């Protein structure tokens, strides 16, 4: 059974940094396209950053140059999102996502990590 567990969320002042992590079990994160999404209250969930199986990364325009996605392709089996120069509008619940490998297999989501940025 695939499980994704996020950690590292919290409260940070604007301009500060935070790193959130996602530990995978039941899957090897190196074999999946992984991503971070976020959802603020009353807003739709949006893609923040992704890393494909070839380790090519992609970022939303709003975070490009400030956020960095990476993963530990070892026993840690973890995906990270380093967030720098945080802005109040970055505050949201951040979700880890693993894209399924097979057509009949659902994507996997973590439970979410809350990030709050004070102005």
Question: How is the topology of this model organized?
Answer:
Layout: E1 3-7, E2 10-13, E3 18-25, E4 34-39, E5 46-51, E6 57-59, E7 67-72, E8 78-83, E9 92-98, E10 108-109, E11 113-118
Parallel strand pairs: 2-11
Antiparallel strand pairs: 1-3, 3-8, 4-5, 4-9, 5-6, 7-8, 9-10, 9-11
Describe this structure in words.
The protein has 119 residues and is an all-beta fold. Helix content is 0%, strand content 50%. The strands form 2 sheets. Strands 2, 4, 5, 6, 9, 10 and 11 form a 7-stranded mixed beta sheet that branches. Strands 1-3-8-7 form a 4-stranded antiparallel beta sheet, with no helix packed on it. The chain is globular and about 40 Å long. The model has no long low-confidence stretch (mean pLDDT 96).
């Amino acid at each position: 059974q695939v499980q994704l567990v996020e950690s590292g969320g919290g409260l940070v002042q604007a301009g500060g940094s935070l790193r959130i992590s996602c530990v995978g079990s039941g899957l090897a994160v190196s074999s999946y396209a992984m991503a971070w999404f976020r959802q603020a209250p009353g807003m739709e969930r949006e893609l923040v950053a992704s890393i494909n199986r070839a380790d090519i990364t992609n970022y939303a325009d709003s975070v490009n140059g400030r956020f960095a996605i990476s993963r530990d392709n070892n026993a840690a089996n973890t995906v990270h999102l380093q967030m720098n120069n945080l802005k109040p509008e970055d505050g949201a619940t951040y979700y880890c996502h693993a894209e399924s490998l097979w057509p009949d297999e659902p994507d996997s989501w973590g439970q979410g990590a809350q990030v709050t940025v004070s102005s």
